[in-house]
Amino acid sequence: MANLNVVLPILIIFLTVSSEMKVIECARIFTIINYCKETIWPAIFPGENFNGGGFALRSGQAIVFEAPVGWDGRIWARTGCKFDKKGNGSCETGACGSSLKCQASGQTPASLAEFNLPGGLDFYDVSLVDGFNLPIVVTPINGKGNCTVGGCDMDLRTNCPSELAVKSNGKVIACRSACDVFNTDEYCCRGIYGNSVTCKPTFYSKKFKEACPSSYSYAYDDPTSVFTCTGTDYIVSFCAFRNQQSCTYHDHKLVCGGGSHSQGLKLSIGRWWLLVLALPLMVNWWIV
Fold first, then answer.
1. In the chain, what is the greatest distance between 2 CA atoms, to the nearest angstrom?
2. Where is this protein localized, as stated in its record (predicted)?
3. Top-confidence residue, 278 or 141
4. Which residue in 138, 157, 155, 122 sits closest to 237, CA to CA?
């Protein structure tokens, strides 16, 4: 990841959009961007509207989907994957069985972006309750209400406690949750700890919270972790910063946003869309 003090260059990219593309009224546009240095395999469950729930996304690529009203699901990244031409294979982190297309939630540890879109007021968060494998940021675009940029833009693998660390070839590739490692009622917020009164932050959840204050660090971390917005689209960025500007396409307009609150900026210039992205490298876009 780039240093926060480094000003990323503004790259101008032209995006051709088919005139046949129609945006479903009230649908939510999801733009998934890979700012990481390596290829990742985003996973979505349920994924019927997201290319079957899984695909490869190379460094610098972005992809746009439409999610219907009522969608309730999660998005995460898989790393270190190898799939054959039939979509069968394995991943070092975040695997959902042996398939490229996810039919269930992924294995822990994984950083999760969670969404509940009942129609009207949306609810969204980034959760580290199941551990961490990649930085992930959720940016609401052009919505109304609180519309806070949420997520974890710190790489927790760099200072993961040794007892929680997942390693491959001597390198920390993920950080497990205390519940996953120790499996006690206190760490897992179950039994007598299964409510908001008795389930309190632990040494480990506090370390996660200090690094990523706008993410879920334990099961009852609601007040500072769940955000709401109305009529918004979403950008889900991996290895990005919360104050980083990103753009998406909606209803024949370019919409950009970033910072702690994102209301968006619209530009419309015909069938060719001038896309200005604060990315450290050229971005390839395609629309599903």
1. 60
2. Secreted
3. 141
4. 138
Separation CA 146–CA 148 (nearest Å)? 6
Does 247 score more than 90 pLDDT? no
53 three-class SS: helix
What's the CA gap between 234 and 187, in Å, rounded? Answer: 32
Is CATH 1.20.1260.10 the right assignment for the domain spanning 24-256?
no
Evaluated on CA atoms 69, 273, 284, 34, the torsion sign reads negative
Cis peptide before 109 (omega within 30 of 0): yes
Region of 9 please: left (phi>0), alpha (psi -120 to 50) or beta. beta
What's phi and psi for 51, nearest 5 deg? 55, 40
The token pair that represents 117 in the structure block: 């879109």
Q: Is the dihedral of CA 222, 118, 132, 214 positive or negative?
A: negative
Torsion of CA 89, 93, 94, 100, to 10 degrees: -20
Q: Where are the domains of the chain?
A: 24-256
Which pLDDT score is estimated for 270? 26
41-64 tens-digit pLDDT: 999 999 999 999 999 999 999 999
Structure-token pair, residue 287: 């629309």
Pairwise CA distance, residues 125 & 215, whole Å: 7
Determine how many CB atoms are found less than 10 A away from the CB of residue 86. Answer: 8
**Per-residue pLDDT, 250:** 62
